Structures are given as C-alpha cells and as structure tokens.
Amino acid sequence: QVQLVESGGGLVQAGDSLRLSCAASGRTFSGYSLGWFRQAPGKERELVATIDWFGGNIHYADSVKDRFTISRDNAKETVYLQMNHLKPEDTAVYYCGSGFLGEMIVNRDSIGSWGQGTQVTVSS
C-alpha cells in the first residue's frame, strides 16, 4: 500500500498563494490517479482536484477552478496543488489521495489511500 505525506500548508492572508505537495512511497506511482480533497470543520470531505497518471485528464471543483492547479511529477512520485487567490472559505485540512490502479477518481469512494492531511488557514 502506498504511503502519502502532505506538506506545504500554513496560515496566509486572503489573496495569497500556497503550494501543497504530496509525496508517495511504498509502492509504484505508476498507473494511479491522484486527487486533492479538503475538509472544513463540520463539513464533509470534498473533492478539490484530480489528475490521471498521464496528467492529461484533470478535473477541478467549481469553487477552485481558475485559482488552483493540480500537477504531478511521476519521476519524483509527487503531486502538487498550486493555490492562488486564496479565500477564507478555502480554509480546511487538505488531503491527498491515491485512487485504484487504472481508475479515475470521481469521489471519496475512489480513494484507496489517504495522506494525513495538512492545514490551510486563510485569514480575511
């Protein structure tokens, strides 16, 4: 099973940028879709962005479209989430997740392995 470790969270002001990273280890990265989810206090974990193995099939939640960019470096076995123009409503714990071999991520049920999460707090 893959182990995922997120980093890059922090406290920023509205309008600022952050880049989250998620490094994988334990098994090959090859053939697995990856995704970023977030969970705010009292809310369900929601999908933020997903990317397939080749990097050609990318999906964003409407709330982050045109502000966030997901990318992956398969050689480094790392997936990134560049977050620009951050808003207070982006405050949440951000989790990366690995899908099942050969399958796209469409929701939380598509995730086989989760990272431990990294806190992002955006002040107004």
How are the SSEs ordered, and which strands pair?
Elements: E1 3-7, E2 10-13, E3 18-25, E4 34-39, E5 46-51, E6 58-60, E7 68-73, E8 78-83, E9 92-98, E10 113-114, E11 118-123
Parallel strand pairs: 2-11
Antiparallel strand pairs: 1-3, 3-8, 4-5, 4-9, 5-6, 7-8, 9-10, 9-11
Question: Care to describe what's here?
Answer:
There is one protein chain. The chain is 0% helix and 48% strand. Strands 2, 4, 5, 6, 9, 10 and 11 form a 7-stranded mixed sheet that branches. A 4-stranded antiparallel sheet has the order 1-3-8-7, with no helix packed on it. It is built from no helices and 11 strands.
Strand segment count: 11
Q: What is the count of DSSP helices, taking H or I runs of 4+ residues?
A: 0
**Residue share in helices?**
under 10%
- Assembly type: single chain
Q: Return residue spans where pLDDT drops below 50 for at least 5 consecutive residues.
A: none
Give the overall form: globular
Beta fraction of the residues?
A: over 45%
Q: What is the N-to-C order of secondary-structure elements (H for helix, E for strand)?
A: EEEEEEEEEEE
Mean pLDDT: 95
The major sheet is characterized as: 7 strands, mixed
Q: Any idea what the radius of gyration is?
A: 13 Å
Cα distance spanning the termini: 39 Å
Structural class: mainly beta
